[in-house]
Design brief:
Helix content: 10-25%
Shape: globular
CATH architecture: Roll
CATH class: Alpha Beta
Strand content: 25-35%
Strand order of the largest sheet: 2-5-4-3-1-6
Number of strands: 6
CATH superfamily: ph1033 like domains
Length: about 160
DNA sequence: GCCAACGTTGGC
DNA sequence: GCCAACGTTGGC
């Protein structure tokens, strides 16, 4: 049974993998490997469905910012990088027979012409109480309310319109 | 580079 | 099953 799309936020460090790297991928699609946190994994493995929307957030940037949006184009499957001894995220406890870590594929929707810095996000009324803005929040994959998602997209578009 | 806030690990 | 030690995240 179909359900409405859900909304998510996924963090990435732009020096490692940015939304511009996603834009440059063939078909502008990539697998979101390297997540090694159980809560984040569970969201990807159990709850992300085709067509769900993703807000791409650049952490550890100056300033950290919302960079654009994407959508889920493939539901969860084992993260093979966990089996690769040479991979930064190698985990000997994960095996092909009994995979511990999972990932999804996402496809770029939009790179914001004007990104929204953390300070700007904090100024948006609709984002009060958003998980991302909570002190000490570290989850790299987290659910986002539709209202929050829409407010961020709207604010990014308004900023771009004002700048042009 | 610092460090607060977490999450994980492993001894007991 | 507790919890101290350790490792990581991520804003600043």
């Amino acid at each position: 049974m179909a359900r409405g799309a859900k909304y998510w936020l996924m963090k990435t460090e732009p020096e490692t993998y940015s939304i511009h790297d996603l834009e440059a991928e063939s078909n502008q699609t990539t697998h979101w490997d390297g997540v090694r946190n159980y809560q984040a994994r569970n969201f990807m493995r159990d709850e992300m469905k085709l067509g769900d929307r993703v807000l791409v957030y650049h952490s550890n940037a100056k300033p950290p910012h919302a960079a654009g949006t994407a959508k889920i184009v493939k539901e969860s499957y084992p993260d093979h990088t966990a089996w690769d001894e040479n991979d930064k995220h190698y985990d000997p406890k994960s095996t092909p027979e009994n995979p511990r870590w999972f990932m999804v594929d996402i496809k770029l929707d939009e790179v914001f012409d004007q990104t929204l810095g953390l300070d700007e996000l904090r100024e948006i009324k609709a984002l009060e109480g958003m998980e991302l803005l909570r002190r000490g929040s570290r989850l790299s994959v987290q659910p986002v309310g539709k209202g929050e998602f829409d407010a961020i997209v709207k604010a990014a578009h308004k900023k771009a319109a004002d700048a042009s």
